[in-house]
Amino acid sequence: MEQDYTCISNSGGGIFINIDEGIVNINPTEQILIVNCNSQSDGGGIYCEILNLGQIQVNNMKFNKCISQKYGGGIFALIQSGSQVKIDKSCEFYQCESYGNGGGIFVLNDFASECSFIINDTYIHQCNAKENTSSSSPTGYGGGIFLTGNGDYDPSSELLNLKGMKIYNNKADKNGQSLYIVMIKVVEFCQYGILGEYVKGNYSDTYSNESDLEGIPMDQNTFIFSTSEEIIELHKHLEPWWRILGILKSTQVIVNVSNPNGKLIFHIEGQSMIPIYFTVKIFELRDKTQEEIDQDQKEMNYKYNKNNLIAVKQISQQNIITPKYQTKNHQKTSIIRNLKIEKNFQSNAIEIIYPPEDGSHIPIQIEGEIPNDQTASFGLNEYKWLNYKQKVYGVLISNGRNIFTGKAGIDIKEDSNAAVPLEVIIEEEDVDDETEIDDPEKEDDPEKEDNDKKDDQEDQAEKDGKGKGLQVGAIIGIVFGILAFIALIVIIILVFVFASKK
Fold first, then answer.
1. Of 146, 27, 32, 12, nearest to 88 (Cα)?
2. Which end of the chain has fewer CB within 10 Å, C or N?
3. Which residue intervals make up region (Disordered) (predicted)?
4. What pTM did the predictor assign?
5. Where are the domains of the chain?
């Protein structure tokens, strides 16, 4: 149902509502469209006063191009004495304007009497709060919504709830492009719940402009007599008030290509890590120095030889193996590693943020509660990007993918040393893919293939040579044995003949 009034009124250009102890539920089966309604004072579309526990619920209404000369281009709501206003079911405010505050909605709430204002499902876009230079009080605040009141608000009451607020492309000549809040406990309101959930609506910590949501910790009576300079000094973006920066203490990754739960298992220790919102950034911090590479190689060789010695002892108890061949294989592996470590090659810097934003992975599991120490862990099956032999990796954490912090919760933009180095522990490497990890550009190196073939041919030739040598030696031994046996018989016959003549 479309109501295009194109009308003008002092208060409530389209509808004027006064509720005292009553209940009004606007719930049409078809959307009500209020267009081009104008108010000389407050409430371009609707002006409503709700008193003495009164209630109003506005559903399925669209306010388009409604204008007020003072407050509330779409709706002006005065809520007193424990009353309630709820806006729900696909309400929309589009291109509404006020020449005061609250381009879409203006709410004046009596916080002391526990009044309630709730937005469950409302889209507010391209609304505008314009500055009125002839006004003695501050104007041009809250392009989408201006929320204010007197008295102390208790956030735990949850009487203010903007979770269903959807904002886009609103404007204000002064501050609060989509929302401006004037209340004594605005900071506590922002900090209640998880990351501003009761105040932010569809605002994104990652992508939205911080100027969309702003406010000031003072009541309405103080605000209307404040100068622009006083407001500028005290008002803030809302996001920093709810923001919680993670504190990273240590990071570790265990490499095990046989682990079915993830070839890379990451362990994080820190504080202020919020489940669901928690993300980890892993990036190339710097190239390893030659000294670090050499030291890593010494430790790797020591561990390799130690493990190999244990393995040889265990095998030798079951089978007799020629030590020469076992030693040769070990030396060959060690040499290949040394050659690859010494190579320098250019590669693009790696940066991974986990979990990905597309929702394809489950959130990182966190143990422990804020503000105590916490641990987090996750696994990755893709592991070949981790060039731990030549690169040092840094780790940062975030609650919302916007600001990534490290040591002591410091942003890396403020301190380049904030990242925590990633400790790499090797349980089982992928020996077959070792070349690809160290030097992807040499994956199909013909020189390497020729050298491998040459080594195989030399090994085979050595085995064939020893086999032939064994056969010749056996034949010569047999021949000498037969000759010795014949000589023995001849000697016996000669002795017998000599004895018979005597």
1. 27
2. C
3. 430-465
4. 0.75
5. 2-242, 247-441
